[in-house]
Amino acid sequence: MRFSTEYKYMAPRQICTRCVMDSSVPQIKFDASGECNYCKLHDALSNDNPNDERGKEILKQIAEKLKKEGKGKKYDVVVGVSGGTDSTYLLHLCIELGLRPLAVHLDNGWNTETSVANLRNVLEALDIDLYTYVINWDEFRDILLSQLKSGLPWADAPTDIAIVSTLYRTAIKFDVPNIFVGNNFRTEGKQPTLWTYTDGRLISYIQKKFGTKKIETFPNQTIWDVLYFTLIKRVKMVRPFYYIQFNKKHAKKLISEKYGWKDYGGHHHENIFTRYIIGVWLNQKFGIDKRKVTLSAYIRNGEISRQDALKDLQQAPYQPKLMQSDHEYVAKKLGISLSEFNTIWANNNKTFRDYPSYYPFYEKVRWIANKILSRLLPFKPMMTYNIDK
């Protein structure tokens, strides 16, 4: 397989008049003025999560609560880190708030040298302890291959599940009841469910159907795990960026100057497999361009003009030579030949609805599940907002 050095941009039928989400995006609707429902979701989230003086006060109160709960312990909060912009800035924010964080990193075998150096630099500069969970590579390699064989678009789903599960397990291990994560709807937007949905049941089923190894050490997360982490152990996940005026460009400038942080390119390019899945697997096999979500978020957050975002979308997700190189590297690291990889690539495309998951159950009990989630979490989770309105 060879990737063209000329990117073919497919013009959509309709583009939102405010952002760059278009008619190719699942669940999208446009009002009479041409504005999409993803923009309206952003506005609803912004209204519920102010990042002005009210947000500052909310975050201040959260920090005081964490200090109180951490009294007599070594750490106040667990923080997920990758060496990327968001998690590096999050560590900086923790120190500004007077918190004692424990940085937690999932090593899934795909880190870039730049991200490793970034992480080391900020931890040394801020004198923060690091706990790294190194995933069992043989088992994880088989799980990733299963995801690719399944024909699902979001083949990096096991990493997402493992990160969240590892954060909860580490919080319990070190008796720290609170977790900070760098999620931020203002700079990340809302991913369409059909593009990236996953859960622990889906991961287990895919592995049983397509894998050659049993899940034994991989930190999967079933619904029972979630109930144990949140109801029994009372661990809470907090999203501090919801309450501050976080600007990606400004954050990069600050952490570069303070901690020698170096840019690794695009969104989530600190991890080679994630870069490949977003820029090649999703884009070339499924026709999914996740940049539309991120660029639209940047537009709404005032970080880029709509005109510049549209120009960006006419370029390849990243350098075609590197895309080719990543394709070959991924095959080699997964232990398969390019011929075998091309056979997997040619499999029919599927969606998560083609396999068992928790989602059908969630749809049946959405109303009560949203009520429970809103009580368990210190913020109203994005999944409880109805994008179809």
Describe the structure.
This protein has 389 residues and is mostly helical. Helices cover 51% and strands 6% of the residues. It is built from 18 helices and five strands. The protein has helices at residues 37-48, 53-69, 85-96, 113-126, 137-150, 157-173, 185-188, 193-196, 200-210, 223-232, 248-259, 272-285, 291-300, 306-313, 320-333, 338-345, 359-364, 366-376; strands spanning 77-80, 101-107, 129-134, 178-180, 236-238. Strands 3-2-1-4-5 form a five-stranded parallel sheet, with helices on both faces. Helix 3 links the parallel strand 1 (77-80) and strand 2 (101-107). Helix 3 (85-96) runs parallel beside helix 4 (113-126), helix 5 crosses helix 9 (200-210) and helix 12 crosses helix 15. The radius of gyration is 21 Å and the shape is globular. The termini are far apart. The model has no long low-confidence stretch (mean pLDDT 92).
